[in-house]
Write a structure and sequence with these properties.
The chain is 12% helix and 18% strand. With 186 residues, it is of the alpha+beta class. The chain has two domains: 95 residues, no CATH class; 88 residues, no CATH class. Strands 3-2-1-4-5-6 form a six-stranded antiparallel beta sheet. A hairpin with a 6-residue loop joins strand 4 and strand 5. The longest helix is centred in the N-terminal third of the chain and has 8 residues. The radius of gyration is 18 Å and the shape is elongated. The mean pLDDT is 88.
């Protein structure tokens, strides 16, 4: 489990030891022991390490998490002063992107379902093979640009065969752009 987002926490307080657990590749809720002291400077260092005096050496910050001043999921520290605990809301040390093959329509799911697979490959941040509600879809592996809003018929990323489903992605600007909101069968 990643560090909870601001909305998931209810109380926006975070525990430094839990953020440290996430940064060493455990997860936010694990009981994995950490060696004191724990330095926010080391947790926030993009290259990782223990130069700030931590009892642990941290891996590099996972740059697939987006850097944002808003409280949306998959955030990451910017590595510069002032250091802020709030930069870790939603941070996930083990975040990966998964390939997404699709056919796209800006107008409807039935139109998307009538198209054949596109040669273009997109990426999503979900834990399943195909994106589901709440996952974000990106045009690049690095996650620098979110996918255009609309309807996407999904295809198996390995075989290119349709799985008979579609997802709707939110468009526009803001922190929820690129997020899967609805799905159904073709």
């Amino acid at each position: 489990m990643a560090v909870p987002t601001y909305d998931e926490m209810g109380d926006p307080g975070m525990e430094l030891v839990r953020v440290a657990r996430e940064r060493v590749g455990q997860d936010y809720t694990s009981s994995y022991g950490m060696t004191n002291p724990i330095s926010l400077k080391d947790l926030s260092a993009l290259a990782g390490g223990s130069a700030g005096g931590s009892g642990n050496s941290y891996p590099a910050v996972n740059l697939l998490n987006t850097q944002s001043s808003n409280f949306y999921r998959n955030r990451r520290p910017d590595g510069s002063d002032p250091l802020k605990m709030s930069e870790f809301f939603g941070y996930n040390q083990t975040l990966t992107r998964r390939e997404m093959r699709f056919a796209y329509s800006s107008t409807s799911s039935s139109t998307a379902c009538s198209y054949t697979i596109s040669a273009t490959i997109y990426w999503h941040d979900g834990s399943s093979t195909l994106p589901v509600g709440g996952d974000k879809v990106y045009t690049t592996y690095s996650g620098t640009t979110v996918a255009t809003g609309g309807f996407y018929q999904l295809f198996d990323p390995s075989s290119g065969v349709t799985n008979g489903t579609w997802v709707e992605v939110i468009g526009g600007g803001g922190g929820f752009a690129g997020t899967v909101t609805d799905s159904g069968s073709c």
